[in-house]
Amino acid sequence: MHNVAVVGGGPVGLLAAVLLAQGGVDVVVLERRTEISGRPRAIGIHPPAVVALAAAGVDVTREGVRIEEGVARSDGRELGRMRFDDPGVFSLPQQRVQSMLRARLTELQPDALRLGRRATGLARRVDRVEILGTDVGARVVVGADGVDSTVRRAAGIPWHTRPGRASYAMSDVDDARLPGLAVLSFERGGVVESFPLPGGQRRWVALLTGESGEPDLARIVRERTGHELAADASVSVFAARQNLAARFVDRGVVLIGDAAHEVSPIGGQGLNLGWLDAHALARLLLQNPTPTAGEWRRFERSRQASARRAQAQARFNMRFGRALPAPLHRARVLGIRMLTLPPARALLADAFTMRRL
Predict the structure, then answer these.
(1) What is the CATH number of the domain that holds 235?
(2) C-alpha distances out from residue 224 to 48, 190, 207, 228, 333, Å
(3) I want to staple 16 with a disulfide (CB 3.0 to 4.6 A). Which of 78, 199, 278, 288 is the partner?
(4) Structural domain boundaries enclosing 221
């Protein structure tokens, strides 16, 4: 029997495992996939997550592109800017961070990561929780297995839909212009965002507003902003949804990351929130390997409160970036100008960099 078993070997589950392994905890990670997914995922790493990953021995500042400033634009004009203080926001694909965490866990406990292991359910015993479909049991089982979490369903924890839904098109293109700058273009037809990536690339994301068939992102970006993208760029579509687990802790089972909360992926909020869950959980278990009921309640309340704040901010971001008729669009432009002036600018920067979560 292990002290802790993590179901889900993505970046959130791996961070929790690495932090626990560093503290001498016997931990095992069960991941159903054998390879890291290659499809585009989150890229933004906010200051609290930079610190949490550094505590695990993973320095994203070496390979990541630092985003030094964010600029808001509309109708071809700049509305305002904000700078991001140290340690800053870094852009690095989730897959690379996941690979770094895998390597770090292997350094600490070579046999901890077990690939190709699919959990099918849970069986609670007096002193442990057994993970069905595997030969693993642990005092604490951590569900870090995503929005369709087997652990959450097996534990009987309800999944509640929260306000905030939208669809976006996304593409990573060769574009070395605007290094270190995040650009948010608030246009009448809907928001267009772009962020620098390592290797001289740039990610473009645009709100979809009822387009049928496969979206022509190059056309959308051109019509809304005047910027020309490579016409043959590969485009993917994703939906931003928001859900929250009714409980994060339930009789030896703990949920973190997307298993606990689904947050709009715009800006990497969901992934960063998951890393903060992992950091908080590891801190609790390293302080007390058998937390009291009161300690578990405080952990759950704290992380649920952070998730609700992140979802509220994501909902605001989605509403602020929607397509608007001319009069409301002009009002939005005025509001953005005000938000990018002191003292609101500092509060806005703190919100966007997740310093309050």
Answers:
(1) 3.30.70.2450
(2) 33, 8, 11, 11, 15
(3) 278
(4) 166-239+321-336
